[in-house]
Amino acid sequence: MQKIIDLFYKFLEILLILLLAGMALMVFGNVVLRYGFNSGLNVSDELSRYFFVWLTFIGAVVAFREHAHLGVESLVAMLGRKGRIACMILSNLVIIGCSAIFFWGTWVQLPINTSMAAPVTGLSMGWVYGVGFFTGAGCILISLDRLFRLLTGRVTEEEIAAFTGENLTIEQMAERT
């Protein structure tokens, strides 16, 4: 099962690369067309914005899985094992709550978004903002898995170290600042 999950996240990373590359190519191509040929593609402006939205929200799930989001590591690092586990439990509960609100908000907004069409492509805005379902559900599932492992005592020392930022090298810590 872990191999399937790892393959899924590898797919997401490839998707992020493709979204970023597509966004960069569309914007670069449009700049060349505008300044070199006094023309441009309206669709590239719109799609690059949508790619950026998808890139951000899909990337949030990948970053959350890898403990790459900002945290108050200096405070948590001062605590002992029990304190760190308590902070991990509290943190995951808050994330589940916020992600559930985000998912619910996407659900409530869906009828409005699907009834609206993008001005250039005609794409339903439900496809653009529907990525909130993926992000909300993804963060909830990751948090539930972490919470389950915490409460059943299956959390590893490596996971605790990742939560407190102790698994990072000096170079990785310098990148974060």
UniProtKB/TrEMBL annotation:
<dbReference type="GO" id="GO:0005886">
    <property type="term" value="C:plasma membrane"/>
</dbReference>
<comment type="subunit">
    <text>The complex comprises the extracytoplasmic solute receptor protein and the two transmembrane proteins.</text>
</comment>
<keyword id="KW-0813">Transport</keyword>
<keyword id="KW-0997">Cell inner membrane</keyword>
<feature type="transmembrane region" description="Helical">
    <location>
        <begin position="85"/>
        <end position="107"/>
    </location>
</feature>
<keyword id="KW-1133">Transmembrane helix</keyword>
<keyword id="KW-0812">Transmembrane</keyword>
<comment type="function">
    <text>Part of the tripartite ATP-independent periplasmic (TRAP) transport system.</text>
</comment>
<feature type="transmembrane region" description="Helical">
    <location>
        <begin position="127"/>
        <end position="144"/>
    </location>
</feature>
<dbReference type="InterPro" id="IPR007387">
    <property type="entry name" value="TRAP_DctQ"/>
</dbReference>
<dbReference type="GO" id="GO:0022857">
    <property type="term" value="F:transmembrane transporter activity"/>
</dbReference>
<feature type="domain" description="Tripartite ATP-independent periplasmic transporters DctQ component">
    <location>
        <begin position="23"/>
        <end position="152"/>
    </location>
</feature>
<keyword id="KW-1003">Cell membrane</keyword>
<feature type="transmembrane region" description="Helical">
    <location>
        <begin position="12"/>
        <end position="35"/>
    </location>
</feature>
<protein>
    <recommendedName>
        <fullName>TRAP transporter small permease protein</fullName>
    </recommendedName>
</protein>
<dbReference type="InterPro" id="IPR055348">
    <property type="entry name" value="DctQ"/>
</dbReference>
<dbReference type="Pfam" id="PF04290">
    <property type="entry name" value="DctQ"/>
</dbReference>
<comment type="similarity">
    <text>Belongs to the TRAP transporter small permease family.</text>
</comment>
<feature type="transmembrane region" description="Helical">
    <location>
        <begin position="47"/>
        <end position="64"/>
    </location>
</feature>
<keyword id="KW-0472">Membrane</keyword>
<dbReference type="GO" id="GO:0015740">
    <property type="term" value="P:C4-dicarboxylate transport"/>
</dbReference>
